[in-house]
Specification:
The complex is a heterodimer. Chain A is built from 15 helices and no strands. Chain A is an all-alpha fold. The longest helix of chain A has 35 residues. Chain A is globular. Chain B has a domain of 73 residues. Chain B has a 6-stranded mixed beta sheet with strand order 6-7-8-3-9-10, with helices on both faces. In chain B, strand 4 and strand 5 form a beta hairpin. The chains are: A mainly alpha, B alpha/beta. The interface between A and B is medium-sized, with 28 and 35 residues.
């Protein structure tokens, strides 16, 4: 095992490993787009993409119906799943390093409970912002999720000037529990809306077209590029605050920036898809185990692994009980929970 | 020269150490001694600017209050007591983090010179053969040396050590202190360590600052500080008698 781990560590800067990972990403994306109620070959998918983007004539045998299914339904869905998975995994890696706790996740910071409460209130009130219509829900989810993180960071800094990790984790728990309690109360009072709230919380990528991809992409780009700028600081923060300070990191400023970037990533992911758990927890964990802890490697690989994992689970969610569809949040947890238990038990042996 | 003038500090607005004044000359290894809970580690954290303090800390006529974190890290390195491992970094990766303050820009990587300094630091603590090993797989003593190497990699003027010989066997303890003492003399730098073992303190330190309940009880050479009265007052046992009894048994 050690030998295996070592061999992967030594190839971590190798171009071959990078090419391998990127090809894996494309393969999974293509498989995701090709599989479904009507299967389309990967060659045909490439032809459709070429036709739509570069106006290259379609290959023989592809009809307009296929083009519509692939271009309007599957491709945006697969890309969306990838963006959400990548965002959650990167966000998880950031929070784990900042809180130097391999078991922390962005949900520890109350993003999902804040977003859920906002969306719950929205569903109950039936309110919709003019002009943006169906995008009201993700927008409210995003704003509430991110506001919760700000509130938790602010609250922690008031309670404890040094913003120690315990304070942040405890504040996150307090806010989460409180918001969940409000949501439960609301759901009990408006029982006819329980189903919509529960469905939103379970997460799904269905019926979300290019408009969601266009909204999600800028947040994903800003978040991941922003995080990439702080790889060294995350390495140092992983050793704890005192050590980070003594090698020259201005911990409270850097921590705040990283938590906000992580909130942007998780907030937008939750807004797009609902609260999907476990990706943020297990992907960074797995990546660190295989490729080592250096964030210069961990972050990009988390994007690829997280994205691919989400595309795969979404594929399972929509193909396993055709023609109906399972909520992707349930599949990630169904695959994620036993897997995580396995890793954790193996470690503690 | 490092001057500590009227320094008071603590936690939650309660001063744990009060009105501490002493100075460290270049080339010196200084030990801070005293019983548990007397404020040794707190004093060390204040000198490393990890906690807020009142008073002045002046390094070569610069008040460290005016230095930002990176500038400070180039001047003062601190090896703290708790070194928990949460993530799988290698020895080399860990030590190379000591060069952080010297990097320009967030995307720059280690220069050839940085790499040489890191390798030299790892060699100096005798871990070069383990440089690609994960730190989670090291023994307590080896880990201690990794963090010491990281402090060396910072290339500071002052190294502060909180019980650096913890987890080390006798041979390692002696070697580390010999090395630190030599490092200070050869490079004209300052080492300030919190140590519990009075024998080691007696053997290796040029100067001692003895604390009791947050205040300085004595400072100076071991001969000047380790007086029967002082020791009795601070440790509440007959230290000299105990040491001699132990020595007799060895003979």
């Amino acid at each position: 095992m050690h030998q295996y781990k070592k061999s992967l560590r030594t190839i971590q800067n190798n171009k071959r490993a990078i090419i391998l990972l990127i090809s894996l990403m494309f393969l999974i994306l293509c498989i995701g787009a090709s599989t479904g109620s009507s299967n389309t070959s990967i060659k045909d998918i490439l032809s459709i993409i070429g036709y739509k983007i570069f106006a290259i004539p379609l290959a023989k045998g592809i009809n307009n119906n296929d083009v519509a299914i692939i271009w309007n339904l599957r491709l945006p869905r697969v890309l969306l799943a990838f963006i959400v998975g990548g965002s959650l995994a990167v966000s998880g890696a950031v929070v784990q390093s900042v809180l130097k706790n391999p078991l922390a996740s962005p949900y520890t910071l109350g993003v999902s409970s804040g977003a859920s409460l906002g969306v719950g209130l929205l569903i109950v009130s039936g309110f919709s912002i003019p002009f943006i219509g169906k995008l009201t829900m993700p927008l409210v989810g995003f704003l509430c999720g991110i506001t919760t993180v700000f509130a938790i960071v602010k609250f922690s800094s008031i309670v404890d000037k040094g913003m120690s990790n315990t304070t942040i984790i405890l504040s996150g728990m307090v806010f989460s529990l409180f918001f969940n309690a409000i949501l439960t109360t609301i759901a009990a009072l408006y029982s006819e809306d329980i189903k919509s709230i529960a469905l939103w919380q379970m997460g799904s990528f269905s019926m979300k077209g290019w408009s969601y991809v266009k909204i999600g992409l800028p947040f994903f780009a800003i978040g991941t590029i922003g995080v990439m700028l702080y790889c060294k600081e995350m390495d140092i923060l992983s050793f704890g605050e005192e050590q980070a300070k003594s090698v020259g990191v201005d911990t409270s400023i850097i921590k705040r920036k990283l938590l906000i970037l992580s909130a942007v990533l998780t907030g937008s992911a939750v807004a797009i898809s609902g609260t999907i758990g476990f990706v943020d927890l297990i992907v960074p964990h797995l990546v660190r185990r295989i490729f080592g802890a250096k964030h210069k490697n961990v972050i990009p690989i988390c994007i690829i692994f997280g994205g691919c994992f989400m595309v795969f689970t979404d594929l399972v969610a929509r193909t396993i009980v055709v023609p109906s569809e399972l909520p992707v949040g349930a599949i990630t947890a169904l695959i994620g929970a036993p897997f995580f238990a396995y890793i954790y038990l193996k470690k503690s042996k | 020269m490092l001057e500590i003038k009227n320094l008071s500090c603590g936690y939650d607005k309660v001063d744990v150490v009060r009105d501490i004044t002493f100075e460290a000359k270049r080339g010196e290894l200084i030990c801070i001694v005293g019983p548990n809970g007397c404020g040794k580690s707190t004093l060390l954290k204040a000198i490393g600017k990890l906690i807020e303090y009142k008073g002045h800390i002046i390094l070569d006529s610069t008040n460290i209050e005016n230095l930002n974190r990176k500038e400070l890290a180039k001047n003062i390195a601190l090896m703290t007591q708790t070194n928990n491992i949460y993530f799988p970094y290698t020895v080399y990766e860990t030590v190379s983090l000591g060069r952080y303050a010297y990097l320009k820009g967030s995307l720059s990587s280690l220069s050839k010179e940085d790499v040489d300094i890191v390798i030299e630091a790892i060699k100096s603590v005798d871990l070069i053969e383990l440089k690609d090993k994960l730190i989670s797989e090291l023994s307590g003593g080896q880990l201690q040396r990794v963090f010491l190497a990281r402090a060396f990699a910072q290339n500071p003027q002052v190294i502060l050590l909180d019980e650096p010989t913890n987890h080390l066997d006798l041979k390692c303890q002696v070697e580390i202190l010999e090395y630190l003492s030599l490092w200070a003399k050869k490079n004209n730098k300052i080492v300030i360590g919190v140590l519990h073992d009075l024998n080691l303190v007696n053997l290796f330190s040029e100067k001692i600052v003895m604390l009791s309940q947050g205040e300085v009880i004595g400072k100076g050479t071991p001969e000047e500080v380790f007086l029967e009265d002082n020791l009795k007052k601070v440790y509440n046992i007959n230290v000299r008698g105990f040491m001699l009894k132990a020595l007799k048994k060895w003979q």
